[in-house]
Amino acid sequence: MALSREKQERLSEDIHLLGDVLGHVIRRQAGIEIFELEERIRALSKTRRLEDDPAIDARLAYVVGRLDPAEAELVARSFTTYFELVNLAEEEHRVRVLRQRERDVHPRPLPESVGAAVAALHGAGVDEFEMRRLLHRLHIDLVFTAHPTQAKRRTVLTRLRRISAALSDIDQRDLLPAERQAVINQITADVTLLWVTDRSRTSRPTVTDEVRTGLFYFDNTLWEALPAVYRDLAAALGQYYPTLQPPDRFLTFASWIGGDRDGNPNVTAAVTAETLRLHRGLALEKHRAAARALDRALSISSRLADVPEAVDEAVEAYGEPSGHLAFLHDRYPHETYRHLAGQLAADLAEASAGDMIARLMGEELPPLRMRRMENLLEPLALMDRSLREAGMADIARADLELSLHQARIFGLHAARLDLRQYSDQHTAVLDELFGRLGWFDGFATLDGPARAAALTDALARPVPNLTMLGDLSAEATEALALFAILKRAVDYYGPELFGPYIVSMTHGPEDILAPLLLARWHGLCLSDDGAPEGLTFAPLFETRADLRAAPEVMAALFDHPGYAPHLARVGRRQTIMIGYSDSNKDAGYLAANWELYGGQEALARACAAHDVVMTLFHGRGGTIARGGGPANRAILAQPPGSVGGRIRITEQGEVIADRYGHPAIAARHLQQVVHAVLIAAAPDSYHLTARPKPEWRAAMEELAAVSYRAYRELIYETPELLVYWSQATPMDEISQMRIGSRPSRRTGAATFDSLRAIPWGFSWMQCRHVLPGWFGVGEALAAYSQSPAGLALLQEMYHEWPFFRNLLDNSQVSMAQADMGIARLYADLVEDGRVRDLIFGRVSAAFAQTRAAILQTTGHRELLDNDSVLQRAVRRRNPYIDPLNFIQVSLLRRLRALPDADSAAAESLRDTIFLTINGIASGLKNTG
């Protein structure tokens, strides 16, 4: 739907309002000279975009190069703050458009909504029986991670949310002139606070800082947004499938934050215990507030309405009331529902005050009434059921339904905590423990099959007494401490606290058997008394080779005598994670995506052949190179049959703030995700998703092979590439930014292989090469389209195959964010002219080739002609991003010329570079 001129004008008004406020703040806080300097640079940058004249670039570089460090910092702060404000204006505009679209289509459902999915399924002929089966297997788990791509401090995020709320007030409330001016005054105060707030952290955030940041979104957005999705699905089913009800828990959240110890030594057993406490504390307090509201609202007198005996019995069984409960009984003797809600609030308060850490560390404490989810659900369900039975369903819907949804969705832990560890870490720990137990020598030196055999033997042996082993290494001590805490948590609070235990860099069955053995030794899994499993395990396949081997590895694992009993105890359900970031770093954008596509198909077949219910866990990041892009399109682009109604997806870094910072945008994102999963889960016979033709697959095989060779030749087989990358990007500065608790490398060794994929992408994004999101695509498309028949087939694939269309459309986004003119500025930082000319020459030629090939394949005249809104936003932003790139290049050149990299002058330059990194990330709405 085209945007009306009125709405575009309102967006412009918001941008001008915020721009005027910022200009006022700059003049007042930095002085008129800085304001005029910023305006001069902005004018030059806008002219640069309008005129292809190298002299303008030279002039802009000259002006920026003459800035002293203080001026550079103030100008960089001006542009950085501008982008933060423009992002808010665009966010409010998106909400405005969504609200108008919903009005326009009412009473029909909004496209890409839950209601639209149910209507489409009904319209395609999905009958009640098939819909019931689909709902039975429906489960979507979105997983927050603390991957260090959120460059903003929580203080800055909170301030920006206040300005966002003020914009919403202006847009949606009928303000009087004086009220409007008061709101603008508040915006001015908040922008001033942004101006005088340090953007860079003085120290790295702790893991618990990151946990609190993640929980911020549960507290402020998700607690209300998720139940709305449940209500919408119930309403849609009521219209099209009136005998069906939605599952109690089909859309949930989990988190890695505080549980992801892969390469992060700061995530200890004690930190995981504190994370569990923070999760539980938020949930208990949110539910307690809801229960207190219920004990005020449910003023139903037994003298005026029938109160079922079950309610009276529940109140009487609680025991002698005291405190607030005694007050309720004395003051409202006939209002039994109020008494029951008060009991619930009292139990939640008692649990909230309990010392969870001490309990997890093994201390004996008094028992709690409120331990597990069922303790919360039982009284809420009783009240809901009895009200409906007594003819008071309206009260149940108004006052209880939301609390009941929140209890089912969030339980007593807000989000399940995933655990993750690097496979080599388990091998090293067990090598030590086996040696100390006298079971095996040299376990770590064995190949994969031999390690699997040793682990199978160990799983069959009686559980050893590990407490007798003294003087263990720090790594082994830490691993045993973690599993001991997990055991206590599961025993007392239930397995609902935890998601899967993920093993990164899984190469074979032995990498899953290793943590399974540690879990067995601690009574979490495969206990001799047949108790339910306390943990499940998920392999993470990341590289091209591992993705190709994944189906064979899983088939071997399913049949393995050490794993098969565990699989049976968990109902033959298996989560399998695939990594987008490392596969891209390993194989390049196009080849990695095709490997992921084929890997998913093969994994689905392997699981079906072994009667295993598979949940694919997509380790996606924010950028295109790391699997980012619109979630709805990404899900619909998955191989037919691979979703099956069950999916897990990571939400990382700055994406969390972008998708879940604003309640309306969070609600829309969740609607789109559920819509896509419902559509993708429909059986093939209903033809709601496209199945690729054999000739499309054959074409993709050729494209992937050519792309893979082009990428590997440049990245892995051209020695000069790493020299170029280290000098032409701000990689060193990014690695020193205090934006996350996790180091930029998985190990201490400074090698390319140890470098994580996130800083790899982050650095290429900053210097506007954005290479991981497009390199290799052009060479593949150009080679295949040399014949008219080849080009025609590519064009057919783009128009008819969601996977291929999504692949090229996402690559267009990366290319639109790239800029070879700006990239050349960074190339000039490379000291060796031969290296500079070689690498930049190849990159810029590949960029031109890729642009031409994509436009030819898509039939577009310009990049992003398929998305005019995004195209317009990119064009609007570029003139304001460019100055930050010019400043960053100038400061990098000065920093590298200093004789002492640790001097006060170097530190000052580095802080301003950090500011430009923040600003460019805000301008591109991406880090990497």
From TrEMBL:
Cofactor(s) required for function per UniProt: Mg(2+)
Gene Ontology BP annotations: carbon fixation; oxaloacetate metabolic process; tricarboxylic acid cycle
Keywords from the named record: Carbon dioxide fixation, Lyase, Magnesium
Tree of life domain: Bacteria
Pfam families reported in the protein's UniProt record: PEPcase (PF00311)
TM helices/strands, residue ranges: none
Nucleotide-binding in keyword set: no
Active site: residue positions: 147, 585
Swiss-Prot/TrEMBL catalytic activity: oxaloacetate + phosphate = phosphoenolpyruvate + hydrogencarbonate
Alphabetized PANTHER family for the sequence: PHOSPHOENOLPYRUVATE CARBOXYLASE
Family: Belongs to the PEPCase type 1 family.
Job description of the protein: Forms oxaloacetate, a four-carbon dicarboxylic acid source for the tricarboxylic acid cycle.
Protein name in the entry: Phosphoenolpyruvate carboxylase
